[in-house]
Amino acid sequence: MMDEMKNRGETSDMGMAQRVEEGIRTTFSRRLFKPFAKAIVEYSLLQPNDRVAVCMSGGKDSMLMAKLFQELKRHRKFPFEIVFLVMDPGYSRVNRELIESNAALLGIPVTIFETDIFENVYGVEKSPCYLCARMRRGHLYAKAKELGCNKIALGHHYDDVIETILMGMLYGGQVQTMLPKLQSTNFEGMQLIRPIYLVRERDIIAWREEYGLRFLRCACKFTADCAAYDADSKRQRVKELIRELSRENQQVAQNIFKSVENVSLATLISYKDRQGVHHRFDEEEG
């Protein structure tokens, strides 16, 4: 059940907020703001008069994304509105307070709403994380639309993209990628965008460490030791594989990313779209 919206972050530690904002304009401009701005232009993620719900989980990625949006807003290239949206799916008191304190520290005026997602997925044995993720996105779309937004922004970065590509191949037997934007099929007129699509995770970590910031790493109430859980996950194993291969060839990450932009249709045995699966040799015989 959703409770009343609550705003947090109006009272900020302007010392830290100003330091972080200055760093985005100077020290981290090339590594953070420029790839953020490039993704917005290259993939047409923003249009004049958009109202975007910047969805914040409390982790480093979405917190940085919020600060980058604030910086973009100051450039005033064209009019658009932003709402910094935090969904509480049933966080512990400590985790909820960490999100609120970080928002205040960084000068981000967040709008918080509550759901009972954690309770709903409790006890689900098959793919609880998948179910939780789908429910989270549905609630974010619904609340964003209620607030008059036409887009939601999620904090997936470059490394999430290349890991997703490899995971699909190694564990799913398919070639697919995480798109920089897509239209919602369940919420008419709503679009999902990923503005830090071109930002490397190592640069986000460097930004976090530069200011000694501590963000939420894993908020799942069912995982007591998230570090151990992540180490055993498929994504973590793929992350380590990419890291190992990159020691031998620094272009590995870039090549994985580019691979889904340079697909040779002439060499594909089959592909699928909304009409179904199409086999190359069937088409040749036809």
Give an overview of the whole structure.
The protein has a single domain (6-225), classed as HUPs (Rossmann fold, 3-Layer(aba) Sandwich), CATH 3.40.50.620. The strands form two sheets. It has a seven-stranded mixed β-sheet with strand order 1-4-3-2-5-7-6, with helices on both faces. A two-stranded antiparallel sheet has the order 8-9. Helices cover 49% and strands 13% of the residues. The chain is built from twelve helices and nine strands. The radius of gyration is 20 Å and the shape is globular. By secondary structure, the chain is α/β, with parallel strands linked by helices. It has helices spanning 14-25, 29-42, 60-75, 93-106, 117-121, 128-146, 158-172, 201-210, 226-231, 234-248, 252-259, 280-285; strands at residues 6-8, 51-55, 81-88, 110-114, 151-153, 181-183, 191-193, 270-273, 276-279.
What's the short story on this structure?
By secondary structure, this protein is of the alpha/beta class. 49% of the residues lie in helices and 13% in strands. It is globular.
Q: What is the topology, as strand order, of the major beta sheet?
A: 1-4-3-2-5-7-6
List low-pLDDT spans: 1-6, 8-13, 224-231
Level-2 CATH architecture: 3-Layer(aba) Sandwich
CATH topology: Rossmann fold
| Main beta-sheet annotation | 7 strands, mixed
Which value, in Å, is the CA radius of gyration? 20 Å
Distance between the amino and carboxyl termini = 55 Å
N-to-C SSE series? Answer: EHHEHEHEHHEHEEHHHHEEH
Instruction: Provide the domain count.
Output: 1
Helix count? 12
Assigned CATH superfamily: HUPs
Q: Write down the CATH class.
A: Alpha Beta
- The amount of helix comes to 40-55%
What is the general shape?
globular
> How many strands?
9
Report the structural category: alpha/beta
Average pLDDT, to the nearest integer? 88
Strand content: 5-15%
